[in-house]
Design goal:
Strand content: under 5%
Distance between the termini: 60 Å
Structural class: mainly alpha
Number of strands: 0
Number of domains: 2
Radius of gyration: 24 Å
Shape: elongated
Helix content: over 70%
Number of helices: 6
Length: 130
């Protein structure tokens, strides 16, 4: 949790910490490069893009399941998970884009659930029970 210089000065004035401690705390937070949450065009575009991707993937997964079966859907889910991992890793390493990168990486869990459940669908060649 980053702390401002004004807050540190208030703590020194109140006698909670001494001036040396305040300087060490300020130096520590200056070196951590903490990214505060923010609402700007870049983050909004990533969030809206994520909504479009989730909607499209949901529709595409339903269509793929109906047309191609469980094994193809498993392969598609794995391919999407690899793509989201690569995109998330790339964004995570860029300054100021850790939050969108984390969301991309987190979406891998959705793909792993789709991959895990899709292979359980019986193949079309196997007879079904009445």
């Amino acid at each position: 949790m980053p702390i401002s210089q004004r807050e540190l000065q208030e703590l020194v004035t109140a006698g909670v910490i001494d001036a040396g401690t305040a300087e060490r705390i300020a130096a520590h937070f200056k070196g951590t490069h903490a990214e505060p949450p923010r609402f700007d065009l870049t983050h909004t575009a990533y969030y809206l893009g994520a909504l479009v991707v989730m909607s499209a993937l949901g529709w595409f997964m339903n269509e793929a399941w109906a047309r191609y079966g469980g094994w193809v859907l498993t392969l598609i889910a794995i391919a999407y998970a690899v793509a989201f991992a690569a995109a998330g890793e790339s964004l995570w390493r860029k300054p100021g884009l850790r939050q969108p990168g984390g969301r991309a990486i987190r979406s891998i869990t959705r793909k792993s659930a789709a991959a895990g459940s899709s292979w359980r669908r019986p193949p079309s060649w196997r007879p079904r029970r009445p």
